[in-house]
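Good morning N.,

You mentioned wanting to compare the apo and holo forms, so I went ahead and generated the holo version with zinc ion. This is what I fed in:
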Amino acid sequence: MSVVRCFGLDSARYRCANHARAETGFCDHHARDQRVHESAPNLSARIFARWRGNATRVPDNAKCAVPFWLWRGSSAKIVDHLLNDANARTRWSAAFTLRKRRDPRTIEPLWRALQSDVVALVRQQSAVALGKIGTSRAINPLIEALWHDRDPGVRQACAIALGNLGAASAARDLARVLEHEQTIFVSWDCAVALGQIGDATLAPILAQCARDHRAEIVRRACADALAKIQIRQSSGIER
Ligand SMILES: [Zn+2]
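and this is what came out, ligand included:
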């Protein structure tokens, strides 16, 4: 499970192809802007995530769907099934189990599953698991899939996770995806996430989408996000 590849993203929002230094997890190029990656999810966003409630979460399937032998297995064994099992249901169960364990050492294999599993539900569950692990290193895998995954359900899971993490370093990506995304419910979750993160510099983009987006529910979500940013500014929660 050792990290061999850099945890950075290139300008096209794909994973950096360079080898990482073991101490940093980043290549020399990305180590320079590591500050951004190391910024912790901000506290106020977490408070607002709780405030928002669980109404729109990806359904949390019961753990009884996971075979006992997998549920009780070592993390190394579960990772092996996540990446190599021929049965998609087992790979999904492995991702679900890792989601419950929240072990940062499984970020690397979850990122690989998110990039390459042929079944969208497995990629989606891997995205949710990365969001639950919740360290700063789980953010770039989610940004990459938000931009590039071909399945809207996976992109949606990424937007939700980034919002719940209060991932400030993802705010600009969420805003750009909001502008260009074709699937309405993904745009909607990007807007909600931006409200949770609360980056006031992105208010102009939200204002524009609140006016011009083709879907009314997205326009309304953008207006809600703007209102949350304004509440936070006026209550001094924003740093
Ligand atoms: Zn790099």
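DSSP finds 14 helices and no strands in the chain.

Happy to go through it together on a call whenever suits you.

Best,
F.
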